[in-house]
């Protein structure tokens, strides 16, 4: 049974719920913020407009993180949901397709490159940490609490594990910089199970 329907999108592509708000990517035009405290009557609050293709978004606290196709990632301050403001952006090499967030690390699936990790401990100054190149086209990413990274990479599921976490400066910023590839199926080099 449908409870409510809120229109007005060019292409509603992704949604993330945080508290009383729904953040809905409008694929070609950024995202809209809806108050869904009453799910039978969602209310428009505001929107952030950008002109890439917003394939994925996440929210945590006062910030929304966007996978903005050719523009890398954008971090938008939504502390006032009626007037969202760009906090920062970081250009990444490739087409950003999907995001996952663990601690102060934003994991970004890059279509032709694999995965890149960004330190977002300061949302106004994100910085590149590390990357792992994959042989295929990475579309989706999921990171679990055991530091395993699951990638949908063309015709396979790739599972990566962080290596040892080491300090990279005096501020105790940690760097999940080493990766290990677990057996995946099908293996892009020997596609049949043995």
Can you give a write-up of this model?
This protein is mainly beta and 194 residues long. It has a domain at 12-140: 7 Propeller (Methylamine Dehydrogenase, Chain H). The protein is built from no helices and 18 strands. The strands form five sheets. Strands 1-2-3-4 form a four-stranded antiparallel sheet, with no helix packed on it. β1 and β2 (21-26) form a beta hairpin. It starts with 11 loop residues before the first strand and ends in a 13-residue tail after the last strand. The relative contact order is 0.10. The model is unreliable at 164-177 and 187-194 (pLDDT under 50).
Summarize the structure.
By secondary structure, the protein is mainly beta. It is 0% helix and 52% strand.
How do the helices and strands line up, and which of them pair or pack?
Layout lengths: L11 E7 L2 E6 L3 E6 L7 E6 L5 E7 L2 E6 L4 E5 L7 E6 L5 E7 L2 E6 L3 E6 L7 E6 L5 E6 L4 E6 L2 E7 L3 E2 L6 E2 L3 E3 L13
Antiparallel strand pairs: 1-2, 2-3, 3-4, 5-6, 6-7, 7-8, 9-10, 10-11, 11-12, 13-14, 14-15, 15-18, 16-17
Note the overall shape. globular
Strand content: over 45%
Mean pLDDT: 85
CATH superfamily of one domain: YVTN repeat-like/Quinoprotein amine dehydrogenase
The CATH class of one domain: Mainly Beta
How far apart the termini lie comes to 47 Å
Discrete helix count: 0
List unreliable stretches of 5+ residues: 164-177, 187-194
Look up the CATH topology of one domain: Methylamine Dehydrogenase, Chain H
| Strands in their spatial order, largest beta sheet | 1-2-3-4
Helix content: under 10%
Secondary-structure element order, N to C: EEEEEEEEEEEEEEEEEE
> Biggest β-sheet, characterized?
4 strands, antiparallel
By secondary-structure content and strand pairing, the structural class works out as mainly beta
**Estimated radius of gyration:** 18 Å
Can you tell me the CATH architecture of one domain? 7 Propeller
Per DSSP E runs of 2 or more residues, the count of β-strands stands at 18
